[in-house]
Design goal:
This protein is an alpha+beta fold and 368 residues long. The protein has nine helices and 19 strands. InterPro entries: Creatin/AminoP/Spt16_N, Creatinase/aminopeptidase-like, Creatinase_N, Pept_M24, Peptidase_M24B.
Length: 368
């Protein structure tokens, strides 16, 4: 793995050199982890012409969720508690003789940017922009392997929940149980706050669990994900509780399922991101649900749960092979509930079998 991180840093170093910067300072946590294998809270990576230094405000904890730094990265713990690793990185670059330093302006506060100028006034700061994010877009085999494991963990946690008694339990209780099961099966933690929605809450995007109890005849929608070695997946399913689904529930579910299938089948290298959104949205819009739809159909996943590319009407660019994305359409009917179906897939060419489905829990409308 150290060799892999070294290659990533070399690619970034070459990009910086091409723009006239001999050094770069990386502060966005996901980018620090991508380049070093480790992202302690508040840490910064100084990418120098000769040596790469991970600056930390405190000693490494050894927590698996924090990661482990590559062997060829020097770890430097600030001597003063409360010091800023980003500011220390700029100072170190100036003392090493750098005259230009590329920084992630989109991640720096105005206060922090001002502090960099004060500690190293002769250092010219340039904007690295989203160079690392662009580098992270296409995943390598190791990254996709981590996503597969994260998806397996999420599938296991959800599958076990479906085998338990659900009626009478609260949304909040079920969400906490799912997050515990994720950790029990090897996750570093949840990829994002788990959403459990029942009854009139079902199908609502981003719903935060409440003390509402599961009742017979409810729609139950669940959205969860596992964080495994920093990589995050997402799965969402909708079920009916304790009885044969009503006609309106079957019709709504079949509609959302058809939309989700259209989006999944559209995933291929070279396809415009907004086209995936268009074909998914069309199915729901044609049935009269266009006004209530969310701003996007899906998004990229990786070291963050919401990465590029965005699958939305205004999205620019085309899909590449080996890019993991979600396809997650849903419909919420105020006062009645709704349906959401969400999968994580990896874009693959048709010659390789088409999109690879990572989250495999059944999408059949089950009565639990």
């Amino acid at each position: 793995m150290s060799e892999l991180y070294a290659v990533r840093r070399m690619q970034l170093r070459d990009r910086c050199a091409a723009t006239g910067s001999a050094a770069a300072l990386i502060s966005r946590p996901a980018n620090v982890r991508y380049l070093t294998g480790c992202a302690p809270s508040g840490a910064a990576l100084l990418l120098g012409p000769a040596v790469d230094v991970l600056l930390c405000g405190r000693p490494l904890s050894g927590d698996p969720a924090e990661g482990r730094p590559a062997e060829d990265v020097r770890v430097s713990v600030l001597p003063t508690r409360g010091g800023d690793p980003v500011v220390a990185g700029a100072d170190l670059a100036a003392k090493a003789g750098a005259d230009t330093l590329a920084v992630e302006e989109h991640h720096l506060t105005v206060t922090r940017h001002r502090a960099l100028s004060q500690v190293a006034p002769r250092l010219r700061l340039t904007d690295l922009a989203c160079a690392v994010e662009a580098q992270r877009l296409v995943k390598d085999d190791e990254e996709i392997s981590c996503l597969r494991i994260a998806a397996e963990i999420a599938d296991q946690a959800l599958g076990e929940l479906l085998e338990s008694i659900l009626v009478g339990r609260t949304e909040r209780h079920l969400a906490l149980e799912l997050e515990r099961r994720l950790v029990d099966h090897g996750a570093d933690g949840p990829a994002f706050p788990t959403s459990v929605a029942t009854g009139q809450n079902a199908g609502r995007p981003g719903h935060l669990p409440t003390d509402r109890r599961v009742e017979e005849g409810d729609f139950l929608s669940v959205c969860l994900g596992a964080n495994y070695r920093g990589y995050r997946c997402e799965i969402g399913r909708t079920f009916v509780i304790g009885t044969t689904p009503a006609d309106w529930q079957i019709e709504l579910y079949d509609l959302v399922f058809a939309a989700q299938r259209a989006g999944r089948e559209a995933l291929a290298p070279g396809v415009e991101c907004r086209e995936v959104d268009r074909v998914t949205r069309y199915v729901l819009d044609a049935a009269g649900y266009g006004e209530g739809l969310g701003p996007w159909t899906g998004h990229g996943v990786g070291l963050e749960i919401d990465e590029d590319p965005q699958l939305s009407p205004a999205a620019m660019g085309k899909l590449d092979a080996c890019v993991p994305v979600t396809v997650e359409p849903g419909v919420h009917l105020p006062g009645r509930g709704g349906v959401r179906i969400d999968d994580t897939l990896v874009v693959r060419p048709e010659a390789d079998g088409g999109p690879e489905l990572l989250t495999i829990t059944t999408k059949e409308l089950l009565a639990l």
